[in-house]
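Q: Joint fold for the lines below.
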Amino acid sequence: MSLALELSHIQKSFGSTLALKRLDLQIPRGTLFGLVGLNGAGKTTLIRILLGMIQPDYGSVTILGQNIRNTKGPWSQVGYLLAGSQGYPRLTVLENLKVAARWRGGATSQHIQDTLEWVQLTREQYTLASQLSTGNMQRLGLATAMLTRPDVLILDEPINGVDPKGVLDIRQLFLRLTKEYGTTILLSSHILDELSRVADTIGVIHQGEMIQTFSRKELDAFLTPSLRLHIPDWQPALDFLQGRGYSAIHQEGSWILLHDPVLAAEPRTLIQELCLHHHTPTRVTAEHGDMTQIFLDLISPAHV
Amino acid sequence: MTSIISACTAEWIKMKRQPILWISFIAMMIGPLMGILFMGILRHPEWAEKTPLLSDKANAMAIEVNWDSYFMVQLQALAVGGTLILGFISAWIFGREYADRTHTLWLSVPTSRSKIITSKLVVLTLWSVLLVSLQILTTVICGQFLGLPAWDPGNLLAWVTGMWTTFILLWFLCFPIAWMASRGRGYMAPLGMLVLAIVFAQLLGVLGLGGWFPWSIPAIHAGMIEQEIHWYQYLLVAVTGLAGMVGLFTWWNQTDQ
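A: Joint structure:
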């Protein structure tokens, strides 16, 4: 699969602070990459480097096969939204999009109207941006980013302040963009639960380093409700469960983990079966995947 | 070329919604209107019978009531007011983007940053030209209305030429202000610079050193400070302006945003 975005060995310091440390990232075309990290982890620096707003000390950035330093930039194919910068407050929604259309070229009045419809801002098109709610301001930023139907969207905190229905609409919009239009999306967000629902890959950035990436498959595995069994003599029990076709894995200590939402919801039959074969669990817990917990575990000092 | 025109249109859409547009228009008219008022009072003392303060002020200006003096007052109003107003517009156009955090909206778009900066400068120039044109027109119409004596087309031509050459000097001095607005990421720094420039212009003018300070030169050119002016002093203004322009483009193209 060809790459839409590629960062190689990116390093950036601000004075004595090393903001990004030899960071590598590859995002295939038509996928949604979620970027998570604490405040000050390096997300915004990474995004600004991708957009050519900050020059890295080392490394290269390639977007759609073009090195952004050596060319005029692939900006006609890139849309973006930066946190806190969605539009001109003294202009109406429509005027904001007209201004963006002038800079971006190739956006007709029909494009503008279609985009307003996509982000559900048609009714507010004559409203001043300064009078929009936080959620609608985010929609305006999204509309600006999507105006020319770019191949790549780089979005910093696009769902902050958006109401639950709006989040759902935007989620569906992102899925539609990636699946139907093949748009590549890099999405930075603090709302981990939401991110884990839409992302094909999630990257965790911490203290300027990409410390972990999760594929969709891994995310599904993490987020699927699971059953944990504590069995003192765990090895024969694990063999027994695997022999019966369960996807059981051994965890630290004498714990066995089964990723199975059905078993997590109704474990009685399995426990009876285990007891019958003398693999009696001493403790049983049903767990629901929690992206926030996974993230916090990852950035905890013990892990880092 | 198309993208420059498009970028200029975008700047105009933004500019026409800004209060600075109307504030600058009103501010630019204050000087000429004051000149017209005082000239009117001197020409028609009965206008100020009930306001002796205004009458005293007008008399204290010790100017003759004719077209020549009237033109001189307007030229000096442009030299002083124009420095402030054009500087303020420059600070607004560039500094406001940072204050509203909207500058990032156009940093990574197909239209290059240089073209967008150029479009801002084009709008700044066109608006300034419009303001000066309005001042010229207002002055001439009001002068006719006042019935000032000693009308001379030759004087008119010399005055109009003086107005536009003063404007060109002021226009050059907008670039360092625009650079400071960008460098200072807002409009406080350029406004501070503008105030300092005006203070130093006055101070150095009094000390007879105005010819070596770019912001004094428009006032010397307009005849406010009696001092001989040489071609290299005009060059100093141009060099200051060009240095500001180079700084402005370099800032937007090279500095981390």
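Q: Anything notable?
A: Chain A is about 35% helix and 25% strand. Residues 225-288 of chain A form a domain with the Alpha-Beta Plaits fold (CATH 3.30.70).
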